């Protein structure tokens, strides 16, 4: 094959689209998908072509060494710089997640680290990780290992068993089967769990495999001139227009990913020129344009540019949280990214990637170094560049791993949440500051601390007494006065669960037991739905719900403590879904009372959830980090009307301990209210236990 400069240019165009859409559009442009396909085109295509030669060695180590020299140095340096920027700019509350992602990126499983939390990749803001973009590098790294194992392993088996001919077409069939399986899996994932599907290696694999197939199948096809022009023009339109027509974060790598990838494949096909023919502006304008020096140079630095642009964008937003990205600030980020990419490519990537392989006498230390980075160059200048790049990479790696090690070693001291009795502590009255007008001194630090509050979880979570998203098992645990005969069942999802810290204390004081029947993200209803159209929450929630209802019926409690309302969308006044009312009626028929507690405000700035600790760590006040009361809570408890006519329902409302007349701050009485963006901290809930007891007394008639 003649070297295709236009494919280098296409790679440069793809990264340019990624950068522009990340910075100004807040959308996924399809450029990464094109980049993945081109990676498969070069790497897998080369492996498959090598199987034609029966003398091709099957040792994977040379391939791995080249990959390490090509990918690892720039990655290590970028991660080290990003960690330094994180320490200087990001609040310490975000360091743990970012450091975990640094390790995941260095070990090439970042996509799975993000898949566990289904991180939103649709738009950038200050709360997003500056290493989030490295998921695609992890997918590529995993693909390279799979490709080496399949192609080299398949070739070895062929030579052992068949011993004649070449296995290229057999392996091509294997790759085609893998492509079809991955396409099918991505379609299933699009329908069932798109956030997970976006990062899933199996769903992404077809984007790289198809590139390898094209490298072999379309390599010798040369279209007539008019078709070349039409094909490349159509391909360029598809690649460039993707981000304008739809946001790939919501659809890729499902069927719509064929739109940009199909465009890239059309450009690859239309760029095949007859032997001896060069692209000209008149006959092959798209191929000629992509072969231009500016696009080829972008292709040369595309890897480093991709590595640098996202951390700079996120750290910029973290530093200047009040301002949107403007034309000037966006161009500034691009210019800095380009400069860093050029420096990285010239002084780190190139010296290590292009090191000479000349044999020479080596000490054991030099031999060990050469196994990793390749032999050093011959000339004095090249040697200095090689040594300098190697030293920088080693220092960056040691600094990164040392920082992560220190942070991990000191984790226990940061995560230990002190017990504060807000009912008697004059410095941290918590909810009593609103309920009882207790003054909280201004010169006292908040409790828990910003680094501790994320660990201030309900005891049921710590005791693993809540069913996870994956499990449909009903788990019951007993809190309060375990020997009591009177029973309250705490049932529902996490917004019912976070009240256990208060119910436990009230139960032990007033002599009743609290039995938990809880599942993450699964409010208790009759049909596992809360929406107007009756769509179920998710599969395991639907499986858990009937068993949970049967468990409650078997316990025959005096009361079920559960939620009375939930917010409208991501933010807005709360409402009482009809499914809650249907549950209350069903419990009434069984002679079971209902203690329905109003939901809490959810912290959201309109662009996404806001973690209380992150916002406070950025220097904002509790009021600035909180929510306007009118935007998050209805003027009147919506359950008041919903429960009318139901004799078994008693309403519990602690909103006035969360919100003042105008604002619902994230700190009340020097106690941080939320351990994330919408779940209450155990410390605040305990501070509200006095008011909870005052409302439960007449509601139950027990005191």
Automatic annotation (TrEMBL):
Q: Might you give the EC number(s) for this enzyme? A: 2.3.1.-
Q: Which UniProt keywords apply?
A: Acyltransferase, Membrane, Transferase, Transmembrane, Transmembrane helix
Spans through the membrane? 7-25, 31-50, 71-89, 143-162, 169-188, 208-227, 234-252, 258-277, 298-319, 325-344, 386-407
> A Gene Ontology molecular-function term?
acyltransferase activity
Q: InterPro entries attached here?
A: Acyl_transf_3_dom, Acyltransferase_3, SGNH
Question: What top-level branch of life does the organism fall under?
Answer: Bacteria
The chain positions of domain SGNH read: 474-686
Q: What is the designated name of this protein? A: Acyltransferase family protein
The organism named in the record is Dietzia aerolata
The root-end lineage is: Bacteria, Bacillati, Actinomycetota, Actinomycetes, Mycobacteriales
């Amino acid at each position: 094959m003649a070297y295709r400069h236009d494919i280098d240019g296409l790679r440069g165009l793809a990264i340019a689209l990624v950068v522009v859409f990340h910075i100004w559009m807040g959308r996924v442009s399809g450029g990464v998908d094109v980049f993945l396909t081109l990676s498969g085109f070069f790497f897998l295509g080369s492996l498959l072509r090598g199987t034609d030669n029966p003398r091709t060695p099957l040792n994977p180590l040379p391939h791995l060494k080249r990959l390490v020299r090509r990918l690892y140095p720039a990655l290590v340096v970028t991660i080290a710089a990003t960690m330094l920027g994180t320490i200087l700019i990001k609040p310490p509350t975000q360091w743990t997640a970012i450091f975990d992602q640094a390790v995941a990126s260095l070990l090439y499983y970042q996509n799975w680290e993000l898949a566990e939390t289904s991180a939103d990749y649709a738009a950038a803001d200050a709360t997003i990780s500056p290493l989030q973009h490295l998921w695609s590098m992890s997918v590529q790294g995993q693909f390279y290992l799979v490709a080496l194992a399949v192609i080299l392993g398949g070739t070895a088996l062929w030579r052992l068993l068949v011993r004649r001919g070449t296995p290229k077409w057999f392996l091509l069939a294997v790759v085609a089967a893998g492509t079809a399986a991955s396409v099918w899996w991505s379609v299933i994932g699009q329908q069932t769990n798109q956030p997970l599907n976006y990062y899933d290696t199996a769903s992404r694999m077809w984007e790289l495999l198809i590139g390898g197939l094209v490298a072999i199948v379309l390599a010798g096809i040369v279209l007539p001139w008019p078709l070349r022009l039409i094909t490349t023009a159509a391909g360029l339109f598809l690649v460039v227009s993707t981000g304008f027509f739809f946001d790939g974060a919501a659809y890729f790598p499902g069927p719509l990913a064929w739109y940009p990838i199909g465009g890239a494949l059309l450009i690859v096909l239309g760029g095949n020129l007859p032997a001896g023919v060069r692209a000209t502006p008149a006959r092959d304008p798209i191929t000629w344009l992509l072969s231009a020096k500016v696009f080829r140079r972008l292709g040369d630095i595309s890897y480093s540019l991709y590595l640098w642009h996202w951390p700079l964008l996120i750290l910029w937003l973290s530093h200047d949280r009040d301002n949107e990205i403007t034309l000037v600030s966006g161009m500034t980020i691009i210019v800095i990214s380009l400069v860093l990419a050029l420096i990285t490519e010239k002084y780190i990537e190139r010296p290590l990637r292009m090191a000479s392989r000349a044999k020479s006498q080596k000490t054991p230390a030099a031999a060990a170094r050469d196994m990793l980075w390749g032999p050093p160059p011959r000339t004095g200048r090249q040697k200095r560049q090689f040594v300098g790049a190697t030293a920088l990479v080693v220092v960056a790696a040691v600094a990164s791993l040392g920082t992560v090690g220190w942070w991990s070693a000191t984790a226990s001291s940061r995560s230990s949440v002190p017990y504060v009795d807000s009912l008697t502590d004059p410095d941290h009255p918590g909810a009593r500051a609103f309920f009882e007008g207790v003054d909280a001194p201004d010169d006292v630090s908040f409790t828990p601390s910003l680094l501790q509050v994320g660990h201030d979880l309900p005891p049921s979570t710590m005791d693993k007494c809540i069913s996870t998203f994956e499990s449909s098992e009903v788990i019951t645990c007993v809190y309060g006065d375990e020997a009591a005969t009177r029973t309250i069942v705490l049932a529902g999802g996490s917004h019912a669960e976070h009240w256990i810290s208060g119910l436990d204390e009230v139960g032990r004081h007033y002599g009743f037991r609290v039995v938990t029947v809880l599942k993450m993200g699964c409010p208790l209803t009759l049909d596992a739905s809360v929406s107007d159209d009756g769509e179920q929450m998710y599969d395991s929630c639907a499986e858990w719900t009937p068993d949970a209802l049967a468990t409650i019926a078997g316990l025959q409690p005096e009361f079920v403590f559960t939620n009375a309302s939930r917010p409208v969308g991501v933010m807005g006044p709360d409402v009482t879904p009809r499914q809650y009312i249907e549950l209350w009626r069903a419990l009434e028929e069984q002679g079971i009372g209902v203690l329905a507690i109003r939901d809490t405000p959810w912290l959201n700035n309109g662009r996404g959830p806001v973690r209380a600790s992150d916002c406070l760590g950025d220097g904002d006040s509790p009021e600035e980090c909180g929510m306007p009361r009118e935007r998050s809570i209805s003027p009147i408890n919506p359950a008041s009307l919903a429960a009318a006519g139901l004799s078994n329902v008693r309403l519990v409302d602690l909103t006035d301990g969360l919100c003042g007349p105008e604002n619902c701050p994230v700190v009340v009485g020097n106690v941080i209210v939320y351990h994330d963006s919408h779940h209450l901290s155990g410390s605040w809930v305990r501070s509200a236990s006095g008011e909870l007891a005052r409302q439960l007394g007449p509601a139950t008639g027990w005191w």
